[in-house]
């Protein structure tokens, strides 16, 4: 009767919808993995060639090192840091970051608005997390009229803390130590665990967030972050 026909049509529609959603999910899953492997291959090649140039890898080892990084390596690492200077992106106490490794940084790989991990200009064995505010060629104008405007030179950048409650002298960023070299950037923060119940992707430039999305999809392990988290 009509009731049975309508029920069958409803069931058929549900099955069709489920299949459609599965196909969309499968395509997105495959797309993420293809993009992820492309990023991983680029990272492996860049790192291996950099090590070869620096004499850490001989000619005969390059291909083996590339394959090892490609098959077994990760392109992210965990980094713990107090985030007072980067509030509200980070909490005031211990934060655990998932950081995308950037072995050879230039303007192709970072953009204004990215939260980056860089070597402390004054203590190079330590690392800072700051937001990228300007890149090479940008004119920097101080709020202090006594300071002359200047252009950032090639491969220089300007990084800032973003806690608006901190005075510029307290923030410890480019306003106190000046421009930094892009070569001092070692990674980009892509996920932040502030507490066990407060965590999520880091807001970076639109370009970088699109680039990092497959890496986040494949390498993010919230349980791993929680185990590493100190707070």
UniProtKB/TrEMBL annotation:
Alphabetized GO MF terms: serine-type endopeptidase activity
Domain Peptidase S26 span(s) in chain numbering: 75-140
GO annotation (BP), single: signal peptide processing
Family matches, as CDD domains: S26_SPase_I
InterPro entries named in the record: LexA/Signal_pep-like_sf (IPR036286), Mitochondrial_IM_protease (IPR053307), Peptidase_S26 (IPR019533)
Highest taxon in the source lineage: Eukaryota
Name of the protein this chain belongs to: Peptidase S26 domain-containing protein
Taxonomic lineage from the root: Eukaryota, Viridiplantae, Streptophyta, Embryophyta, Tracheophyta
């Amino acid at each position: 009767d009509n009731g049975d026909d309508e029920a069958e049509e409803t069931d058929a529609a549900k099955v069709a919808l489920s299949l459609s959603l599965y196909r969309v999910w499968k395509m997105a899953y495959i797309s993420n993995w293809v993009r992820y492997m492309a990023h991983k291959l680029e990272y492996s090649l860049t790192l291996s060639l950099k090590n070869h140039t620096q004499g850490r890898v001989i000619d005969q080892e390059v291909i083996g090192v590339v394959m090892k990084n490609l098959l077994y390596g990760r392109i992210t690492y965990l980094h713990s840091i107090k985030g007072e200077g980067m509030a509200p992106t980070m909490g005031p106490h211990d934060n655990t970051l998932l950081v995308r490794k950037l072995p050879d940084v230039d303007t192709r790989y970072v953009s204004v608005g990215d939260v980056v991990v860089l070597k402390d200009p004054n203590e190079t064995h330590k690392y800072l997390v700051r937001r990228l505010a300007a890149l090479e060629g940008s004119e920097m104008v101080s709020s202090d009229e006594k300071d002359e405007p200047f252009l950032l030179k090639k491969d220089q950048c300007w990084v800032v803390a973003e806690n608006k409650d901190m005075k510029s002298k307290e923030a410890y960023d480019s306003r106190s130590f000046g421009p930094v070299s892009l070569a001092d950037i070692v990674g980009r923060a892509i996920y932040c665990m502030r507490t066990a119940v407060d965590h999520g992707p880091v807001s970076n430039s639109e370009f970088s967030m699109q680039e990092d999305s497959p890496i986040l999809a494949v390498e993010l392990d919230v349980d791993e972050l929680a185990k590493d988290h100190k707070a």
